[in-house]
Amino acid sequence: MKITLLAVGKTDDPRIAELTDMYADRLQHYVNFELQLLPDLKNTKNMNEERQKNEEGKNILAQLEKSDFVTLLDQRGKRLSSPQFAELINKRSVSGLKRLVFIIGGPYGFSQDVYDRANSKLSLSDMTFSHQMVRLFATEQIYRAFTILKNEPYHHF
Ligand SMILES: C[S@@+](CC[C@H](N)C(=O)[O-])C[C@H]1O[C@@H](n2cnc3c(N)ncnc32)[C@H](O)[C@@H]1O
């Protein structure tokens, strides 16, 4: 199974990008992991929130295959402990799934079309984080999940 973390826009802060890349590199030891960054939209100053979400949504949907299992990172999603998250990844992996896709929205979140395509929603907290921070947190949690599944001494219960 491949895991893709799909996000809108480049990471402006090199410190966040560096940490995210560190966990992404470590993940290669366990799984074919890809952090896929979609290009920023142009001329967003002339767009209202809804239009920007819809344009970003079209770009997101264009990246998805029919067979993908799609989980949106969304603060209104389901909350799981790290071991529960690890178990969920394991369940998907043994089900023969080709690709598990996690998606992080843009500054205003997701369009309705993206919500309609999603198979599940996962919350990292009730608080709202910047989309750049979520890249780091999600990558670290996916890495943590694999160390839990392999019984490696990274996660402390
Ligand atoms: C700045 S937030 C967008 C906030 C937007 N107003 C909303 O209600 O979704 C950008 C993206 O970061 C992710 N995000 C932010 N906080 C999160 C959280 N607590 N749990 C999961 N994802 C989160 C989501 O993918 C969101 O679309």
TrEMBL record:
Complex and partners: Homodimer.
UniProt-listed CDD domains: RlmH-like (cd18081)
Keywords from the named record: Cytoplasm, Methyltransferase, rRNA processing, S-adenosyl-L-methionine, Transferase
Swiss-Prot/TrEMBL catalytic activity: pseudouridine(1915) in 23S rRNA + S-adenosyl-L-methionine = N(3)-methylpseudouridine(1915) in 23S rRNA + S-adenosyl-L-homocysteine + H(+)
Gene Ontology CC: one annotated term: cytoplasm
Name listed for the protein in its UniProt record: Ribosomal RNA large subunit methyltransferase H
Cellular compartment(s): Cytoplasm
SUPFAM superfamilies, alphabetized: alpha/beta knot (SSF75217)
Known EC number: 2.1.1.177
Lineage: Bacteria, Pseudomonadati, Bacteroidota, Flavobacteriia, Flavobacteriales
